[in-house]
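Structure tokens please, single chain.
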Amino acid sequence: MLALPVQAHEMVPTYPRLEMSHVDGLLKTTMKMFNKRADVEYYEVGVFDEDFNPVPFVTAYNVFKLDYLSHTVFDIYIRAKDRERAVYVCSKSKIRKDSNTKTAIASKICSKFEDKR
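Here you go.
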């Protein structure tokens, strides 16, 4: 058996809280990501319901560049009427087709919104 180290990216908070934004009818949360993978530069963000169906949201960039050992802070906005549907905010590494590395393993990290009660 060969054991290899596993590298992934990090996203916090683990249980983000949706709060009122400066725009009526929109809720906002702030997330922070850290890239621990030297072989990945791009990440995609999404918001999903309990069955991992997409929920509409807005952020500055759905796919963004994040260099190795760098971090970024970004805001996610969802409509107040979608609050009950939104359960997870996830980030997924995007492997480039022209990558010279042999790895083809994508990492996906999900945070679960705090209980709505």
